[in-house]
């Protein structure tokens, strides 16, 4: 196991690559059995770590699962800064492509976590805070900049417009049983989002 | 318990109002504990019926749950015939309003059933067949008629357009934790679906 260098008397902590490995293992367990049936025992067996190691870094199951989901959300060079290509279409295509790569596991995770959200208020709030809100903010930022450039009408409902791409991606996943392709996402942007933005502009 | 009249030697069956009562009870249990934890014992206790009574009519848990979901889908005078008001906007508003009334329990049910869909292939297929497909077909029929009237371009992707309203309704439910209002659905139709249909018309 990889451990960080520690001062005398300080317990070793899970860090760096090993943390990533463990959270990958959490994703595997989550996709396999769902949130309700995920236990520290299952994760410990999956990643060949002691439960004590897990508990030190992630005191609760919610911590563990949200940590794993955060891992999926991140990708190299992304770091939550939305694309800025100069056009709404360019920004959204850049985001959807990025999303396509980094969130290939997202559909399975959503179906694994959503039922728990339904019954666990604390998890729901933390999930929205750490996962839904940053994504919404990123698309919201893109739409806001587009609005300032005159690509979206001042009176448009940005919250509704911001929901279009994630909503259709989620729906596609549920209906087809697999995440959307990049081509599908481009169709959603070009044939649904942009017309909705332009319609708001013309009225 | 209501039972149907039976010939001598034939076991009484669950029927009519009592069937509806039982399926309502299934919905209650489903919303409460989710699909995975729903058992014939819990349902029997909820509806004050014997498990034998339940098994005779619904041999498996999937039968019971899909029966209950079918109940929610139906409403008086609806019976799976899409509205036909003469305009796309009129049809979709009629459908969304109808949906708003008849599917107030739908969001909770979706979150209760979706995790099971993730792990149960047979349930997934039957769910799509009995629940997703008829709804998609209804919106598809409306869009097809609109296309014939010239309200939607011949080259438009009807499948993508048909997904807009259910996708945003589902997304709203997950993000806000409650089903969409009628006003929200009208916004989705007027500000997203119709512009997407009209954009396809002009290109």
List keywords for this structure.
mainly alpha, Tetracycline Repressor, domain 2, Arc Repressor Mutant, subunit A, 203 residues, homodimer, 70% helix
Q: What can be said about this structure in brief?
A:
Two copies of one chain form a homodimer. By secondary structure, chain A is mainly α.
Description of the molecule:
- 2 copies of one chain form a homodimer.
- The model of chain A is unreliable at 1-13 and 74-78 (pLDDT under 50).
- Chain A is built from 9 helices and no strands.
- The first copy, chain A, is elongated, with a radius of gyration of 19 Å.
- The longest helix of chain A has 28 residues, at 121-148.
- Chain A has 2 domains: 16-70, Homeodomain-like (Arc Repressor Mutant, subunit A), CATH 1.10.10.60; 79-202, Orthogonal Bundle (Tetracycline Repressor, domain 2).
- In chain A, helix 1 (16-33) crosses helix 2 (40-47) and helix 1 packs across helix 4.
- By secondary structure, chain A is mainly α.
- The A-B interface holds A 34, 36-37, 108, 111-112, 114-115, 117-119, 124, 128, 132, 136, 156-157, 160-161, 163-164, 166-168, 170-172, 174-175, 177, 184, 187-188, 191-192, 194-196, 198-200 and B 34, 36-37, 108, 111-112, 114-115, 117-119, 124, 128, 132, 136, 156-157, 160-161, 163-164, 166-168, 170-172, 174-175, 177, 187-188, 191-192, 194-196, 198-200.
Number of helices of chain A: 9
Question: Would you report the number of β strands of chain A?
Answer: 0
The name of the CATH superfamily of the largest domain in chain A reads Tetracycline Repressor, domain 2
Taking pLDDT < 50 over at least 5 consecutive residues as the criterion, the unreliable ranges of chain A are 1-13, 74-78
Most extensive chain-chain interface: A-B, 41 and 40 residues
Helix content percent band of chain A? over 70%
Oligomer: homodimer
| Element string of chain A (H = helix, E = strand) | HHHHHHHHH
CA radius of gyration of chain A: 19 Å
Beta strand % of chain A: under 5%
What is the class of the largest domain in chain A in the CATH system? Answer: Mainly Alpha
């Amino acid at each position: 196991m990889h451990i960080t260098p520690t001062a005398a008397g300080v317990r070793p902590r899970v860090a760096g690559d090993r943390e990533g490995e463990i959270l990958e293992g959490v994703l595997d367990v989550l996709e396999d059995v769902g949130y309700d049936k995920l236990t520290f025992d299952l994760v410990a067996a999956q990643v060949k770590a002691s439960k004590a190691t897990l508990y030190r870094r992630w005191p609760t199951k919610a911590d563990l699962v949200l940590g794993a989901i955060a891992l999926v959300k991140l990708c190299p060079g992304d770091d939550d800064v939305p694309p800025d290509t100069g056009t709404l279409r360019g920004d959204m295509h850049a985001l959807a492509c990025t999303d396509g790569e980094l969130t290939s596991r997202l559909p399975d995770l959503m179906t694994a976590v959503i039922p728990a959200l339904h019954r666990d208020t604390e998890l729901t709030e933390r999930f929205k805070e750490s996962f839904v809100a940053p994504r919404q903010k990123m698309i919201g930022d893109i739409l806001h900049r587009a609005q300032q450039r005159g690509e979206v009408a001042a009176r448009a409902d940005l919250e509704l417009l911001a929901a279009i791409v994630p909503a259709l991606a989620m729906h596609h996943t549920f209906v087809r049983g697999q995440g959307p392709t990049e081509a599908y996402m481009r169709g959603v942007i070009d044939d649904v989002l942009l017309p909705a933005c332009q319609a708001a502009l013309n009225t």
